[in-house]
Amino acid sequence: MASLTYEEIGRRLSHARRHAGFTQRQVAEYLGINREQLSYVETGRRPVDLPTLQRLADLYGFALSYFVASELEPSREAAVAAFRSDSIAPEDLEVIRWVKRFAMNLDSLKRFSAGEGGDQP
Q1: Domain 6-113 classified CATH 1.10.260.40?
Q2: Long-range contacts formed by 30-34: CB under 8 A, 24+ apart
C-alpha cells in the first residue's frame, strides 16, 4: 500500500473545493488565512493539520477518509448543496459546513439502520 503524499491530499482538497463551488479566496477567508497559504496546501507544498482538514471536509461535503485514505472508496458521494457562491459571506460558510456535516451524519445513520454499516463521515 502506497503512502499518501501532501501533493495527493492537496489535489483532493482542490478537487473537493471546486466540486463544492468555492473559490480559494472564499475558503481562505473562512479559515482565516491568506489565499496563498491555501494554494500551498492545495499544491502539497504545505501540510494541513487534522482539525483544519476536518473543517474543510465538512465544508466541502466529503468524508474525511476521502482526503486521508490511500485508496478511495468508489461509490461514496459527497453532500451537495446548490447556491450562488459569489454572494456568500464568510460567516455563511460555517452554516454551510454545519448543514453538510448534519446531512452526512444523517446518511450514515440511515445506512447503519438499513444494515449497510454506518461508517462515520
Answers
A1: yes
A2: 30/59, 30/90, 30/93, 30/94, 31/55, 31/56
